[in-house]
């Protein structure tokens, strides 16, 4: 029986990855993520999702895929056929970002969700800090690195890669028709590029190579690729330049490597980083014992010694942004954006965030580093893997990936089945 591959997300958009591989009566689902919030997101602030209708509302407006046989029937409308039992399905999550795992809390009870131990630790820490998945925590199953797991006729192997969150992984799915390899999210300019190249080595010659392509067609930081050394250097220099004034920070707290490096830099400059209380609890759950929440110094403590702190306000939904007017802003105050919330100009929250900073007279300086492979690195990756077919997803411009030397490029259609072993890849039922 032919192995089919379907793409239920990540087609023509950044994020929302969902790759379904089916052989016989077994299915493997690689990632089950949400769309990244954009200006067109119907659930952007000030809209607040209804917890009791979270999945049903998303399905109603097309913000979740109508993928049969995977959802918890209790979260669906009565009589919705999506709640019927489907083929046996196992889910494999690449990493702990919402655009890759944000829907796993809606899965049918009993569905195994495999991921790296580090990914599971991050997700459990989020839940402990009150920021768990809508629908609840799934049946997490830790999967060791490069350890094959059989699921019916399919075998799945996790390969650790490098991204801006602990435990990021790619996957190899071995089928009767060959191997499908999936990058998850990947970069080659972080602290551990050898991990990413290890995936290329393991995936070499595969039937189908499904790669993220975030950088394709996307204006990133101008000039040379920024590394983590650049980010840490710029943070240290900014603290020195601010002298005795408060420094504000926007850094993604799931990037634990950067969190720990920034804590060290701040301590060397005689400052403590103060987080929102929920973020501080999340970090402490992951072993960052010196994570300080806002409640400890409080606003008065920060006002008494602004030069002793770096403060990261909790601005996930911007409801607390007027509180910025109470902060002790001095001539050296700057807001350092290191890939934190709001994530960037593509987000609906960004313009309002920038407007508030302008009115309050707080300069914004972006010091982050791109968390994804550059366009050049993507092309090198595909050349090294030399698959029979390459499929760029997780990008708004998949047509800008140009494989050379043999691989066919497939620009998939959403929710359409493709034969893995076809020559070339065939659209099932076409």
Automatic annotation (TrEMBL):
InterPro entries according to UniProt: Metallo-B-lactamas, RibonucZ/Hydroxyglut_hydro, RNase_J_2
Any single Pfam family the record assigns to this protein: Lactamase_B_2
UniProt keyword terms in alphabetical order: Exonuclease, Hydrolase, Nuclease, RNA-binding
Keyword Cell cycle: no
Domain (Metallo-beta-lactamase): residue spans on this chain: 15-235
UniProt keyword Heme present: no
Identification of the protein by name: MBL fold metallo-hydrolase
Taxonomic lineage: Bacteria, Bacillati, Actinomycetota, Actinomycetes, Catenulisporales
